Amino acid sequence: MTSVTPITTTPAVAPSKTERPSAKDTVRGGLVLTVVTGVVAVFWISPLALLVVTAIRPLSDFIGNGPLSWPSAFTWENFSDAWDIGNFATTYGNSALLLILKVPLGVLISAMLGFALAKLRMKFRRTVMFSVFLGLTIPIYIAIVPVFIMMRTAGATDSVIGLIGPYLAFGIPFEVLVLQSFFRQLPNEIIEAARVDGAGDWRIFWTIVLPLSAPALVTVLILDAVATWNEFLFALILLNSDANKTLPVGLLNFQGQFSNNTTGLAAGILIAVVPILLAYTLLQRWIVAGLTAGATKG
Amino acid sequence: MTSLSPRRRGGRWRPWLFALPALTVYVVFLVYPAVSSLWFSFTDWDGLSPAYNVVGLDNYARMLDDPVVLTAGKNNLIWSLVTIVFPVTIGLALALLLNGKVRAKPVLRLIFYAPGVLPLVSIASIWGWLYNPQYGAINSFLSLIGLGDLAQPWLGQDSTALWAVMVPAVWLRTGFPMLLYVAALQSIPAELYEAARVDGASRWRQFWHVTMPSLRSAHYIVLALSLIDSFKVFDMIYAMTYGGPGTATQVMGTWMYANVFQYYQAGYGTAIAVVITLIAIAVGIPYVRSQTRERAA
């Protein structure tokens, strides 16, 4: 799919000075655009900003002066209250454990499948590719009843371990899609040369393909970590006891308990989202690279 | 042909050793459950008892008489339309702004995509609070600017609930098209614009004759992925309204859930899930095929 633009036939000629806006106009235009975009950005981020302002004021101050006022007093108590009642120490631990167990494993097995699809002459390659990519379109709720029964039979409900299988399966289509398209761009000559030197597929995979694909692997790791951290539906049906809940399910419970304590609720929501916002800020480059991977190639 | 020659005869089965771990997990936890749901959809199973009867297409016939299915189907359609059209349009507009001579681009880009990384449940909590009729910021803001008459229980009445749930969805989904469009805009050669200017094309004409045609593959990806994603709606509605008030914000996913886990009608619930999944697959197939096609390396 190469995009053909109708204007390419005109030879590119540098426009004369008079047609180009003057430097002064450009600076002013840039300023106006910056202000316009800045206003939209402030509006965009206002729910989160309001959340911060609300979380650091006493409830009485919030009720007395309304949600849009500037706090007349500040407090950290909302955070300690929310932390204790929201059971965040436990839910954070569970989500982190799940992340550590699931994400590297998912990326590894997806990379192996991606390697087979991209670089090995595999039987039924196209059929496998089509069936796996089709998984992108399947909503999780089609699987919840059988998965619930399966886990109950296996005695794996109400355990973070029981989530690993379903999470892996629903992560595989996207991971394989991104990884195999990256592997495909690796030059065959390098792999053939290694093969001539006597390296087997397994060795080629570990010593050539994976190291050369580090950027794609990091991106997929991060995006899969975000998806795993945020997943809700499987966790909702498979986990019962408070001791085993992940962050999204725990947050939902917390929301119910704190419905009348707005400042505490705001603090709890912040506790839940600040780490992921921080991680996103630090890892932004990789996330953007992964999300836009498909956009620019034809 | 990008594949390598096999080292020895019969080598075409060896790659399956690499494929097997992922394929096994995929089949056990995605394919098998999906097919098994299809089977349950032909039964009257309640989800609890060990026994059930096969009732053929009864569950599907019943859906035709279920007014909530009608509401949910309509809501799914509205949801897909609104959470595609608005994010894509706003995302493109923001990308065009960010592609201009704006300063602090990285920060702005960071802000616009930020809602996209949050857990949907937390977004539901945040907006549930903003919409709160008594202590919510939205009604307070309306009073502040003299529109206090418009203050209302946004999530608590049929007329506004669905729209109120879609606003945060638009908020969180705008960042993705914006990122894709920013990347795609940067890859348009500057010569095209220079040439258009030489020909005396106005900004407006440049947009329609240079920018839009060059974004064709970005449009395709944005629309395909948004469409696929829109059928999966569940978390936001479950956490914000649980389908209510009444059934005003039910979608197929939440109505399926209610039937299975609240009314103990697993057979009927899975039939609802099967219908929406088949639609999602049918809609997604062109995209899946486009990704499967061999690309010239």
Description of the structure:
The complex is a heterodimer of chains A (298) and B (297). Chain A has 298 residues and is an all-alpha fold. Chain A folds into 2 domains: 24-81, no CATH class; 87-257, MetI-like (MetI-like fold, Orthogonal Bundle), CATH 1.10.3720. Helix content of chain A is 71%, strand content 0%. Chain A has 13 helices and no strands. In chain A, helix 4 packs parallel to helix 7 (160-184). Chain A starts with 22 loop residues before the first helix and ends in a 7-residue tail after the last helix. The relative contact order of chain A is 0.13. Mean pLDDT of chain A is 86; it is low at 1-20. Chain B has one domain: MetI-like fold (Orthogonal Bundle), CATH 1.10.3720. Chain B has helices at 16-40, 58-65, 67-99, 105-113, 120-130, 137-144, 158-173, 175-186, 190-198, 203-214, 216-230, 235-240, 252-262, 266-292. Chain B has 14 helices and no strands. In chain B, helix 3 packs parallel to helix 8 (175-186), helix 3 packs antiparallel against helix 11 and helix 13 runs antiparallel to helix 14. By secondary structure, chain B is mainly α. Chain B: It holds the Pfam family BPD_transp_1. Chain B: One of its GO terms (cellular component) is plasma membrane.
What are the main properties of this structure?
heterodimer; A: 298 residues; mainly alpha; MetI-like fold; 13 helices; globular; B: 297 residues; 14 helices; transmembrane (chain B)
CATH topology of chain B: MetI-like fold
Radius of gyration of chain A: 25 Å
Secondary structure: number of strands of chain A = 0
Instruction: Estimate the global geometry of chain B from the Cα principal axes.
Output: globular
Helix content class of chain A = over 70%
Structural class of chain B: mainly alpha
- The level 1 CATH classification of chain B is Mainly Alpha
What oligomeric state do these chains adopt?
heterodimer
Shape-level CATH architecture of chain B: Orthogonal Bundle
If classified by CATH, what would the architecture of the largest domain in chain A be? Orthogonal Bundle
Largest sheet, strands/sense/barrel of chain B: none
Number of helices of chain A: 13
Task: List unreliable stretches of 5+ residues of chain B.
Answer: none
| The CATH homology group name of the largest domain in chain A | MetI-like
Q: Which regions of chain A have little confidence, pLDDT < 50, spanning 5+ residues?
A: 1-20
Subcellular location (chain B): Cell membrane
Pfam family, one (chain B): BPD_transp_1
Family (chain B): Belongs to the binding-protein-dependent transport system permease family.
Transmembrane segments (chain B): 16-40, 77-98, 110-130, 161-183, 220-243, 263-288
